[in-house]
Amino acid sequence: MHAYRSQTCADLNASNVGDNIRLSGWVHRVRDHGGVLFIDLRDHYGMTQLICDPDSAAFSEVEKVRAEWCIRIDGEVKARAPELVNPKIPTGEIEVFIRDIEVLGQVNGELPLQVFGDQEYPEETRLRYRYLDLRRDKMQRNMVLRSDVVASIRKRMWDREFREFQTPIITASSPEGARDFLVPSRLHPGKFYALPQAPQQFKQLLMVSGFDKYFQIAPCFRDEDPRADRSPTDFYQLDIEMSFVEQQDVFDAIQPVLTGVFEEFGGGREVDQEWAQISYKDAALWYGSDKPDLRNPIKMEIVSEHFAGSGFAIFAKLLEQEGTEIRAIPAPTGGSRKFCDRMNAFAQKEGLPGMGYIFWRDQGEGMEAAGPLAKNIGPERTEAIRQQLGLGVGDAAFFLGGKPKAFEAVAGKARNVIGEELGLTDMDRFAFAWIVDFPIYEKDEESGKIDFEHNPFSMPQGGMDALNGDPLEVLGYQYDLACNGYELVSGAIRNHKPEIMFKAFEIAGYGEEEVRKRFGGMVNAFQYGAPPHGGCAAGIDRIVMLLAEEQNIREVILFPMNQRAEDLMMNAPNDPTSDQLMQLGLRVIPQE
After folding, report:
1. 73: closest CA among 106, 39, 44?
2. Cα–Cα–Cα angle for 80, 86, 91, rounded to 5 degrees
3. How far is Cα of residue 586 from the mean position of the Cα atoms in its chain?
4. Rounded CA gap, 359 and 396, in Å?
5. By C-alpha distance, which of 516, 494, 504 is closest to 452?
6. Which residues of the chain have pLDDT under 50?
7. Between β-strands 356-362 and 270-271, what pairing exists: parallel, antiparallel or unpaired?
8. What is the enclosing helix (H) or strand (E) of 449?
9. In terms of C-beta density within 10 A (0-12 exposed, 13-18 middle, 19 or more buried), how is residue 8 classed?
10. Handedness of CA 133, 139, 140, 144 (dihedral sign)
11. Is the Cβ–Cβ distance between 140 and 581 less than 8 Å?
12. What is the pLDDT of residue 175?
């Protein structure tokens, strides 16, 4: 017999009754029923109930075991009494009578967290003792799901004739939207490598090298501020690049892959088959976000004309300023003062003075508009708003005003809250939409400087001609894929022509010399017959987070950092030794 097991803890059933078997695993829990000991033995695959009474030669040793001890047992498979069968587990028809036991790994001291049960523990405890946290059933399921999703993605990409290539982990620093992690060079004192923020330049160079379809499950490293849906140090993405393609070709390549993955692992939730294409400008207007949750049917609308010159002085005066507007958030079925006051309080918590509102109620002989705004602007304007928004009795609308960039984010959050609280958001659905036509440039409000708003490597729509006009009007062949309020994919058709690239960077204040210095490898390559190419990258961690129905990305990462970018288990980051610093020619200057 094998040294540790003849079967796993999920293998045994009624057909094994009478067999002598060997199992190894962890003690999930121990129960003493009047001198008869019951142990739930757990391994990666499942659970088996063990039983030991004083007639067993192993009884005195079995009495010593405690939760999470790692043990090996030999025993005989017996059938459970019919009334004791547990239909919830595959091994529920049997139990194993222990004849021999060996302790393989003992727990010393108290467990910092219990694996059995569903107790909640502080994240600091869970991350410090992650190896215990990962033994818990939910975490085992999440990590198996992640592994299965990655395997499925790989198969689907190979089936679509993509080939997987690996790109370097140590490379040169490159400004790609976040801070680099720098790596000092021992062989070249004073110089630094960088961990790649993404394989961006390398995958483009692969296209110049003549490889037609590339993909990689790629690690990416960015020194970013943490949040619930983003790791502060590293993450994985499905990285894709293709030659001789237009924007729609990229969409057509990735859509069936992601659709298939969400259908396979989505637990029966509906997966959109038709993916809308929404301009960045419309997404900001309708949803207050470039990653809208389309499970929520609410669309915001501009209603400025109904407040211009009205009796509501706050909005009327706002509209006298350049670049301001008033937007309405329709709230079907939200027509109660209690709900409206609650949403007004929400806006105040978000840092705004509040949100104006109107709600419509039945007054016996007809419909009445209620709320402070209705009184200030009068029945004619109120009725015009109602008709524009398509609302009726029992409905409400909320209003925000000013320069869009100042209130759009709060309006988007308010739309999400309204949809969820009123039960308008379809929670059993994966709703996808491509966000397209991103502006390439933005203007800093204070300095007036023009800089890249998104990926600097995107091809401008209209090519060189577009760059000769107003930079703020230039759109790029850049796109994101939104799903349920998260950005899942980002990509672009690349700017593969050096003359257009130099001009694009010149507008943002980067001279040709600086571009060659920062992106010399790619710029030089483009002078030797670069093909038109484009691609995208899909966030693996975020995909799994959605499929696992988790709100925090750390729940689907094996060994994540905490919110301060610390690894509490491995004690990282830590102080280098004096010898290490001397070898690298470095000195740490304390921060005041």
Report:
1. 39
2. 75
3. 37
4. 4
5. 504
6. none
7. unpaired
8. none
9. middle
10. negative
11. no
12. 65
